[in-house]
Design a protein that fits this description.
By secondary structure, the protein is mainly alpha-helical. The chain folds into 2 domains: 34 residues; 48 residues, no CATH class. 61% of the residues lie in helices and 0% in strands. It is built from 4 helices and no strands. The protein is elongated. The N and C termini lie far apart (72 Å).
Length: 82
């Protein structure tokens, strides 16, 4: 009986929380969830902190510029296996 009461109370608390978030979105001007991603924070941008995906793209671009792909020679599969 006690376990059932705890489960029902937990469901009620979650339902009140979700209803509160939904009402906030409907009432708030613009009605969107706040952007909590690193890319949406202007203070982190000022400090030079980026999302890891953006940092990875920047580093790949640097590596691509450093590598000279014109001199790469491909070995046929028959020779590579020997």
């Amino acid at each position: 009986m006690n376990l059932l009461l705890v489960i029902i109370l937990a469901i009620v608390v979650f339902a009140i929380g979700f209803a509160g978030m939904a009402i906030r979105i409907l009432v708030k001007k613009g009605g969107e969830f706040p952007n909590t991603h690193v890319s949406g924070n202007k203070y982190l941008k000022i400090q030079g902190v980026y999302c890891t995906q953006i940092q990875d793209k920047l580093e790949q671009r640097k590596a691509w510029k450093k590598t000279n792909y014109d001199k790469i020679k491909f070995v046929p599969d028959m020779k590579a296996g020997k």
